[in-house]
Amino acid sequence: MTTETPLTCYICGLTSDDWRTVDMIGLFEEQKAARKRFKEKHGKEPDSYLFVCPECEEENPHHAENSYEKYGKYQ
Ligand SMILES: [Zn+2]
Predict the structure, then answer these.
(1) For residue 54, how far is its CA from the centre of ligand 1 (angstroms)?
(2) Would you tell me which of 35, 42, 44, 61 could form a disulfide with 13, CB atoms 3.0–4.6 Å apart?
């Protein structure tokens, strides 16, 4: 499973060309559940695959950790 599209941050809701992965590492495993919750949180469909961006991980490590615990993380 690979993706070369920009990624969307689950916490801040932004999508950036700077965030990419070719091997899914660091993304949520449960994309479907995370997308559903994202829609509730942000009031829109996520543009792309969901993960937690480095800025949010730094500013909000507990929220990031809880999210990855909930949705899993590709290692
Ligand atoms: Zn973010």
Answers:
(1) 7
(2) 42
Q: pLDDT in tens for each of the 75 residues of the chain? A: 455 779 999 999 999 989 988 788 999 999 999 999 999 999 999 999 999 999 999 999 999 999 999 999 999
Query: Is residue 1 in a domain?
Result: no
Q: What are the residue ranges of helices labelled H in the chain?
A: 31-42, 54-59, 61-71
What is the distance in A from the centroid of ligand 1 to the CA of 27? 13
Calculate how far, in angstroms, residue 1's C-alpha sits from the geometric centre of ligand 1.
Answer: 23
31 found inside a domain? yes
Whether residue 2 lies inside any domain: the answer is: no
The answer to whether position 53 is within a domain reads: yes
CA-nearest of 7, 17, 6 to 51 is 7
Number of domains making up the chain: 1
